[in-house]
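Thread: quick sanity check before group meeting

JM: Hey all, I'm pulling together slides for Thursday and realized we never actually wrote out the predicted structure for the chain we discussed last week. Dropping the sequence here so it's in one place. If anyone has concerns about the input, flag it before I start.
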Amino acid sequence: MSHLFAEDIAQLPSRYRANLINSVTGYKSCNLLGSKSADGHTNLAIFSSVIHIGSSPPLLGFILRPLTVRRDTFTNIKDLGYFTVNQVSVEMYHRAHQTSAKYEKEVSEFDEIGFKVEYLDDFEAPYVAESTIKIGCKYVNHYPLEENDCLLVIGSIERLYFPKEIQDSDGFIRLDKAATVTSMGMDGYALPAYLERLTYARPGSEPSTLINGT
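JM (edit): ok, ran it. Output follows.
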């Protein structure tokens, strides 16, 4: 079995180290963040760092790399105050990956890559029409991470769109039924297989299968 200590990791070539650390922590979410600039230019960018922050109130977050270069997504979110989170399905991931390219500020990734802009229920930020699960978010706050100069951006969930048939009776969303892909490192993609849901864990008891939220 391979083993690396902190001093070994520090001496690795930068790209090798990035691939290692980005992938070793496991599967991550795969979403397209939609935003719009103050002068109306739409923007779309793939993120693998979207995380659950809380359910009451409903909040999510994502990690933004240091502001040492132009970050159109963050600028748009701060200016407009809204953004969308669009899950990437198996039919979308090739095109979704291309949004990581460094296009000029005035160029819309929607147009360049071939995703359709969709506006729903008077929400100001653009959704990806092809995405099965869509989340409309309002900017809440951001927090600098002193350890690496990244930012944790927090948004409140204002809108949710998903097919009714992928939801269990207790509210649980079956992402496998939406063919949602996950990210592996910076450039790998996977289609996870659903195993089962288990009952609430309590001391002294064995979990059993929870079928369709019951």
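AS: nice. Residues 14-24 form the longest helix (11 residues). The two ends are 42 Å apart (CA to CA).
JM: adding both to the slides.
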